[in-house]
Amino acid sequence: MTALLELEGLAKHFPVRDALGRARGAVRAVDGVSLSVEAGTVLAIVGESGCGKSTLGRLALRLIEPDAGRLRFAGEDLRALSPRALRARRRDMQLIFQDPFASLDPRMTVEDAILEPLRLHDVVQRGGERARVRQLLERVGLRPDMARRWPHEFSGGQRQRIAIARALASGPKLVIGDEPVSALDVSVQAQVVNLLQDLIRELGLTFVLISHDLGVVRHIADRVAVMYLGQIVEEGPAAAVFGAPRHPYTRALLAAVPGTGAKAALVEGDPPSPIAPPAGCRFHTRCPFAEAVCRTEVPGLAGGEHRAACHLQDRLPPAPALRERVAGGERLRRLQAFFGAPAPQPEPTGETA
Ligand SMILES: Nc1ncnc2c1ncn2[C@@H]1O[C@H](COP(=O)(O)OP(=O)(O)OP(=O)(O)O)[C@@H](O)[C@H]1O
Prior knowledge:
Layout: E1 3-17, E2 23-38, E3 42-46, H1 53-60, E4 68-73, E5 76-77, H2 83-89, E6 93-96, H3 100-103, H4 110-120, H5 129-139, H6 156-168, E7 174-178, H7 186-203, E8 206-210, H8 214-220, E9 223-228, E10 231-237, H9 238-243, H10 248-255, H11 328-339
Parallel strand pairs: 3-8, 3-9, 6-7, 7-8
Antiparallel strand pairs: 1-2, 1-4, 4-5, 9-10
Helix pairs in contact: 4-5, 4-6, 5-6, 6-7
The protein binds adenosine-5'-triphosphate.
Adenosine-5'-triphosphate binds near residues 27, 47, 50 and 55.
Organism: Paracraurococcus lichenis
Main location: membrane
Subcellular location: Cell inner membrane
C-alpha cells in the first residue's frame, strides 16, 4: 500500500490577542500530528468539538499554512509548492464543507457552480463541459435538468449533493469531508452517507472523514484517528478502535454512542484550554484512570496496529465491565457538552439516578 497523504509533526497555533491587540499566547489547535492515509482508504478523524479536527483538515490540504511539520501528497512536499503549483495540485485534493447553505454561492446557478472547477482545472475539452455537469448531477442523484436552478431552490440534502458534485468535478484523488452530513436532517443523513460510500468505492477515492458522529464513522471508515486537544491519542483500524479501544478517551467517546455495547466512566469536567494544554498526557486531567506518570509522560508508540495509545491500555478493565459514573439528566448534559451538539440518547442502565 502507498500513502497518498502523509502528515508528520504538523502544527498550527493561532495567536490570541487581547482587546488592545497585545499577544496573549496561542491556541494550539493542532499540536504535532502525524498521520498517513493509504491510497483508496477512508480515514476518520474523531473527537469532541474544538479538538482541532477542522484545522487539521485544512492544514492537510494546505488551505491554511502549518507552523511546523511535513505535509506530503503522493510523495510530493506540499509545503514546498509555489502558490501557482499548489493551485494546480488542488485538482487532486478537494474539501466538502459541513454547511451546504454556506458553501454554495447564492448568485451562481448549479451549472455555474460546477463549471467553475471544471474550467479552472481545464478538466474537460471545450464544448463538453455542460454535458459533464449533467453527468455529475446524475451521479450524485439529481436530475440533469436541475442545472439551471439556483441554490435556494434546493433542500439541504440536495445542496450537499451539489457540493459533492462540485468537489468531484476536477477528478480529485483525495477528498476531505468536514462533517459532511452533520448539518443535514437526520432523515437524509444516511442517504448522503451512502452516496459518499458509493462514490468512494466507484472512484477509488482516498477519503478523510472528519466527524463527531461515530455511527457514520463506523459505517464507512477503514481507519480511525482519535483527536484530543490538538493531538492524536489513538489511531488504528476501525474494527480495532471500535472493538478494543485502548485509550480511556476513546472509550469515553464510544460510551456516548448508543448501541456500541461499550460502557465507560464518562470524562469529568470541561476540556482544558488549548492555550495552555496540560503537560504529559493531555487527557490526564479528566482521565478516571490517570496515574502520576501521566502528568509527565506522553503516551508513546504502542505495539501492533495501534499508534499513540495509552500506557494503561493493557491494565484497563475490558470496556463493557466499566461502570458509568454519571446518571440520568446529568449524563445527558455532559454528553451535550462533550459533543457541542444534541447528545445521543443514553442507553438505559437499569440503575436509578
Ligand atoms: N482562525 C482561528 N483563529 C483562532 N483560533 C481558531 C481558529 N480556528 C480554530 N481556532 C481554535 O482552534 C481550536 C480547534 O478548532 P477546530 O475548529 O479545528 O476544532 P474542531 O474539532 O473542528 O471543532 P468543531 O467540531 O467545533 O468544528 C478551537 O479552540 C478553535 O477555537
